[in-house]
Amino acid sequence: MTRGVWITFEGGDGAGKTTQATLLERWLRDEGRTVVRTREPGGTEVGVLVRDIVLHHRGDIAPRAEALLYAADRAHHVATLVRPALARGEIVIQDRYLDSSVAYQGAGRVLDAAQIRDLSLWATDGALPDLTVLLDLDPASARARLDADDKPFDRLEAEKADFHARVRQAFLDLAAAEPERFLVLDASLPADDLAAAVRARVAAVL
Ligand code: TYD
């Protein structure tokens, strides 16, 4: 059986990942594909528990502990959900993966980016997506979108502007280092235009 296709969406908070993942999922289902839609943190039952700690714990979490929690969520998610779906030949569409750890825990929390990446690669036995869509947006516009949403901020969203500026730059650096895996899009464009660009790239991967 052919292996499935694994697509991840990355970008800062408020960049529109969920909207684009939903539009892609709809298109692929209309094309008759079997799609598994998931996310990190929180794509499994164990992951939901980890997500609650990393996003909603009141008070500090030591940066290395935070990095390990995301890696633990990822290890379980890849082993029990992503790999089996790919082995069945399905398409996995996922909000966030290891690039988020490198950007948020590496650049944001100022841990060593290479160590963070290696930690995740160890956790997942080297699993990397076929395509990663980076929705790039300047942090001021992203913040305006989050404010308009009127939802309470989680621990990461509540970080200051320079944290989000470092996270954005880290994502762009990751994309520049692996141009064959990444599709970088200007997330200030209309959602329909972005969706068309994503579809064109996915069609080439399928
Ligand atoms: P996200 O899933 O985008 O949440 P929502 O769409 O519900 O607001 O956000 C999860 C948060 O977790 C986000 O602020 C980024 C952060 N995060 C990390 O810091 N490291 C990671 O490895 C991952 C996957 C997420």
Question: What are the SSEs and their pairings?
Answer:
Elements: E1 5-11, H1 17-30, E2 35-39, H2 45-56, H3 63-87, E3 91-95, H4 98-108, H5 113-123, E4 131-136, H6 139-149, H7 161-177, E5 182-186, H8 191-205
Parallel strand pairs: 1-3, 1-4, 2-3, 4-5
Structure summarized in a few sentences:
This protein has helices at 17-30, 45-56, 63-87, 98-108, 113-123, 139-149, 161-177, 191-205; strands at residues 5-11, 35-39, 91-95, 131-136, 182-186. The chain has 206 residues and is α/β, with parallel strands linked by helices.
How does this structure look, described?
The mean pLDDT is 95. It is built from eight helices and five strands. It has helices at 17-30, 45-56, 63-87, 98-108, 113-123, 139-149, 161-177, 191-205, and strands at residues 5-11, 35-39, 91-95, 131-136, 182-186. Strands 2-3-1-4-5 form a five-stranded parallel β-sheet, with helices on both faces. Helix 3 crosses helix 5. It has 206 residues and is α/β, with parallel strands linked by helices. 41% of the residues are buried. It starts with a strand and ends with a helix.
